[in-house]
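quick q for whoever's on today - can somebody do inverse folding on this one?? i tried earlier but teh output was garbage lol. tokens:
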């Protein structure tokens, strides 16, 4: 799972990291920290993250502003707002936020958020959309290989899925997940 924390307070980021590491399997989660909405948006692309945790009160762009920008291109990423105030709770519905986490964080609050998000179910249903319209369930892939200008995904349940695309197109998408590894070339 790929997660982004967007908060201008390094102490809050540290606390979130601690709770996530304690409450999840760290080997299955990749977390990137951003100290401002601008920094996050400069690196954001649709599909890059599964979960974005946004502080509402940050610099020039609020978390709600960042969420609106995210929703212009990515309607699937799960959004969580965190703040010291309930003042923006109604605006969180506008961008289809999944949770509203109040500061100061507690392990109980973060656990409640993770339970509500049901990250394990998200991980089981995650798939890769191929340019030709096919979809491959990531948990079904045993391995993938490339030969004669075709990618072959060898899968447990659905059999082989063949698509005409280059290994260079697929490798970064698969290797973004901690359970895939590119062993060699040639």
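ok took a stab at it. sequence:
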């Amino acid at each position: 799972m790929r997660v982004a924390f967007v908060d201008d307070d390094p102490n809050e980021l540290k606390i979130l990291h601690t709770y996530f590491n304690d409450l999840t399997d760290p080997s299955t989660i990749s977390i990137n920290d951003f100290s401002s909405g601008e920094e996050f948006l400069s690196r954001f692309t649709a599909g890059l993250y599964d979960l974005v945790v946004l502080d509402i009160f940050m610099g020039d762009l609020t978390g709600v502003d960042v969420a609106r920008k995210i929703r212009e291109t990515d309607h699937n990423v799960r959004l969580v707002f965190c703040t010291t105030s309930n003042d923006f709770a109604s605006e969180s519905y506008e961008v289809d936020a999944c949770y509203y986490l109040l500061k100061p964080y507690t392990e109980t609050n973060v656990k409640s958020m993770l339970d509500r998000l049901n990250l394990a179910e998200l991980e089981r249903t995650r798939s890769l959309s191929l340019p030709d319209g096919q979809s491959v369930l990531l948990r079904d892939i045993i391995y993938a290989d490339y030969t004669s200008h075709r990618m072959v995904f060898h899968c447990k349940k659905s059999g082989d899925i063949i698509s005409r695309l280059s290994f260079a197109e697929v490798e970064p998408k698969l290797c973004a997940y901690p359970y895939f590894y590119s062993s060699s070339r040639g």
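fwiw The CA atoms of residues 172 and 182 lie 9 Å apart. also The radius of gyration is 18 Å. so keep that in mind when u check it
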